[in-house]
Amino acid sequence: MAGSILSADAGNINGVSNAAAPKGKVFNLDYAPHDGMFKNSAGKNFLDQIQFMYDQGFRSIEDNGYMQRSVEEQTKIGNLLAKLGMRMGVFVIDAGDNWKVSLTTGKKEFKDRFVEVCKKAIESAKRCNAKWATVVPGFYERKLPYGIQMANVVDAMRSGAEILEPAGLIMVLETLSDTPELFLQQTHETYAVCKAVNSPSCKILYDIYHMQKTEGNLITNIDRCWDEIAYVQIGDNPGRMEPITGEINYKNVFKHLHEKGYKGILGMEHGNSRPEAAGELRVIQAYREVDQFM
Length: 294
Description:
Layout: H1 4-7, E1 12-13, E2 16-17, E3 30-32, H2 39-42, H3 46-55, E4 60-61, H4 71-84, E5 87-88, E6 91-92, H5 97-100, H6 108-126, E7 132-135, H7 146-164, E8 170-174, H8 187-197, E9 202-207, H9 208-214, H10 218-224, E10 229-233, H11 250-259, E11 265-267, H12 276-290
């Protein structure tokens, strides 16, 4: 079943040609699908989906909810990735809603909780050789001045980095556009946090979809913050679907990352614009189209 939807000549779907996209050809950049993205083509079992991803030329995955999986399931995922020579992208270091709205406050109980979850993340990461984990510092604390909140976030991130650095796990701070209540709104703010923490285990997750919404000027801001960017995520805007469905010129953005020598993972943190297996084929074709740099 995994190969059936690509065996026939699919021609051209919404302007995306698959003429130069043979099944199984490894992509130039390291795009990482997630659980459920190819469930109609590979089935609901995540291990089967990972095998399908590999067969289509992907060499990494990401799994935001990885820490919520059982130890047995984490181990199975890690073993399959090792067998296939694939990389694990980000999973989320998540200590619950309370710490997400509270790290800006500087309260000891919330920072301690964050540190404890960082310790648990190390054990989960070992099972799949993960190198990156997403952290969202939290919401504004309206009762405190901005500078005090920034200092509190830096202090919390330093505490996390002290735990993660010896284990070789990098927390990547994600700047989001989901709500104006989030403390980190633009890349330069996240850049300032990483510079202040000054650890190889505290870097930027540059989510192209979110940053197009909050600040635009994508290539310029990537260059400005390049030395602190350790991970990239993808989603077109509007809609947060695969490339070629919105306004972002992903072919140019990816070409720029390729020319800069980016060897990291690009997480496909978006939905599929079309349903069922045909929509999944369209996602693969879209990435074939924007992954050409000659």
